[in-house]
Amino acid sequence: xxxxxxxxxxxxxxxxxxxxxxxxxxxxxxxxxxxxxxxxxxxxxxxxxxxxxxxxxxxxxxxxxxxxxxxxxxxxxxxxxxxxxxxxxxxxxxxxxxxxxxxxxxxxxxxxxxxxxxxxxxxxxxxxxxxxxxxxxxxxxxxxxxxxxxxxxxxxxxxxxxxxxxxxxxxxxxxxxxxxxxxxxxxxxxxxxxxxxxxxxxxxxxxxxxxxxxxxxxxxxxxxxxxxxxxxxxxxxxxxxxxxxxxxxxxxxxxxxxxxxxxxxxxxxxxxxxxxxxxxxxxxxxxxxxxxxxxxxxxxxxxxxxxxxxxxxxxxxxxxxxxxxxxxxxxxxxxxxxxxxxxxxxxxxxxxxxxxxxxxxxxxxxxxxxxxxxxxxxxxxxxxxxxxxxxxxxxxxxxxxxxxxxxxxxxxxxxxxxxxxxxxxxxxxxxxxxxxxxxxxxxxxxxxxxxxxxxxxxxxxxxxxxxxxxxxxxxxxxxxxxxxxxxxxxxxxxxxxxxxxxxxxxxxxxxxxxxxxxxxxxxxxxxxxxxxxx
Length: 534
Fold this sequence. Notes:
Elements: E1 2-4, H1 11-14, H2 40-43, H3 47-61, E2 66-70, E3 76-78, H4 83-89, H5 97-111, E4 113-120, E5 126-132, E6 137-141, E7 147-152, E8 158-161, E9 166-170, H6 182-185, H7 187-205, E10 212-215, H8 223-237, E11 253-256, H9 261-264, H10 266-281, H11 299-326, E12 334-337, H12 348-361, H13 366-372, H14 438-461, H15 469-484, H16 488-504, H17 511-525
């Protein structure tokens, strides 16, 4: 069984061949009003069809190709040295990645199928992708689940290609083998648009004036005389003579046809044709220049709808076709995508608000925002900020509440209490009765801070090698000083004592280590020296 999808061997079309491998976008056969010769290249003569195909093809080709390895925690590592990434950047010796993807997307959108022969090296790695015109590719079914391809060459011969040696990108398919041809399915709608376009061309070629009829007072002797007179009239009133004053003899009278373009609903027919064509390829009308129903308030939303509902299915089709043909199905860590983040970006004010909210909420770092704006990262901007006080997550606020501390000298770095001025001196609010002593409140605060720091310290050391502990505690000292509002020197002595204890008992999961850290931190918080390790 041989399933043909339009193999073409017309020698006349070869004269219009714009590439080394086939007639990709042009066909010399003009539309003559019938449905039999309405092919994809003829449909491109409609401006709306060409605009829709161009929007889809250029939109897909303009997106970057990203190949990455995904970690178990969801992190992505780009693979720029992988052979597949290099293949997508330069698929063959005469096309760039943009040109190849644009051509393949145009073929698939216009004809429902796109083909490229896979050329591999001795290691089995694909080195080139040679595109083939869909009209010159046929499919032969070898079984219900297997087939091979036949390529019609310019010299009239045919070349067989195995299924594994052909990169086949297909659209909506009735059987999983061949994609539907949208031009073939919408022949009548496209023919209507072409007929209206041809009518408009003829109408304006005739100086935008309809024809008429000539009244003869008697009759012509025979048909030959009538034809000779008609030819003479058309010769004198068309071409270079169009618009000249006509001279009628023998009582002849000219009557102009009263029908105009409004009667023929020419404009409405063209509008309906554009709307149907946009619906066929699911392209937003404003992207092809149809702004009848577009406003400044809905253009942005229509652009988002274009990315979500039009381009996204095409991109998923591309990604899965690449994975199916080139990636190992057993290695699920390597994946590819065409990110659409650049298409979904708003204006400058919207982007700044997006970055500002992400940084202040702590789910985006400042360097990540710089990279999204194509700016180089800066040292020190890789830590996420806390939502409340905008400091790195591994630090505490520089001050802590001092209410409830006992009288006497405060630890260095403690801010002086603000002087309160009563709004109305005539009214005084008596203080609430204290439910616990100042010492009890101080011990409660110290215990809570010590417990939190000890748990963080345990998490910091978990699953980390011993040689990294000095560097971790060097950074941890500043955190302890800020959290407990104590001098950095005392916090460093605490960290040194913890390192000495770990040298004797390296297991951080030991309950003694947690209790010792909590006890030392409590004493450090209330201004007492902690006990050294035995």
